[in-house]
Amino acid sequence: MKEEFKIKFWGVRGSYPAPGAGTIQYGGNTSCVEISAGGRTIILDAGTGIIPLGRELMKRAVQEKKHLELLLLFSHFHHDHIQGFPFFVPAYIPSTSLHIFGPGGTPETLQHILDHNQSAETFPVSLREMSAAKKIRSVSEAQIIIWDGNGIRAAGSDASVDDDALVIRIYKSNAHPGHVYVYRITYRGKSIVYATDTEGYAGTDRKLVNFARGADVLIHDAQYSEEHYYGALAGFPATQGYGHSTANMAGEVAAACNAGELILFHHEPAYSDEQVTAQELCAKNFFANSRAAHEGLDIAVISNTEREVKYVPHDRNQERRYPQPAIGH
Ligand SMILES: [Zn+2]
Ligand SMILES: [Zn+2]
Known about the structure:
It is a single chain. The protein has one domain (about 5-305): 4-Layer Sandwich (Metallo-beta-lactamase, Chain A). The protein has eight helices and 15 strands. The radius of gyration is 19 Å and the shape is globular. Strands 8-7-9-10-11-12-13-14 form an eight-stranded mixed β-sheet. A seven-stranded mixed β-sheet has the order 6-5-4-3-2-1-15. It is of the alpha/beta class. The structure holds zinc ion (2 copies). One zinc ion binds near residues 14, 31, 78, 81 and 197.
């Protein structure tokens, strides 16, 4: 199983945790996704889903008699993406080696944000007191994160990596308040794109479509129904401009970039299981190979060319239904 490339979802809710009888099927923990590639572990975001993941990683480390080496990537630092980190047990184990990357204006920004998140006023244990060996650094969109035989690093190019390298590219999106990083994780020719906390644009987010082109798995924000987004859902305000997508928007991106599979993510915490299932049906109208993420969902990444059921080819006319900008007057 050395070359396997897998995804496991540990937290799929957006905004805040949503435990209770109405959310049992999809789960109530906030954003956290585990990627396994050739025996290495990458964690996307540290919502409350990272808490059970931490316990599972500790169990595996004991069973395999190995020290943990982990790569944690933050899309951004809104509460639902960092609130689980102070409870991530492997970060308290001195033998753990933890590499953490995320957005930020200077290389030190990420360190400051995590320090602040555990300041004495708001949390009893400081970041320094979490005794794992930590390398924490903000990276820019131009950098490429590489994990190969020479370890984990952010570099300017992936020109000299070996066949077994994990290569992670970044798209800095403006489609969420304060920016968000979208990651494209490539291993042995297959790619996963993690695009959470992003709002669709009219005519689709063309930069995202280019960045995600041909991805074997696209994980995309699908927080709202169309009714909710446009202010027609009783009891909820319109959410246009909040920085989250509808299931239709996610489906449009998946179709436009010819993804292999679309996984709807960052479910609205106020939605019941039935409402999340309805989101899945909406996305399928745009992109047949869609499903809603649930806690515990485990996916082996298969390449588009190996897929038995071919995805429905994208109808290029879909893109043309939006008016093109007028040139001159
Ligand atoms: Zn979020
Ligand atoms: Zn956010």
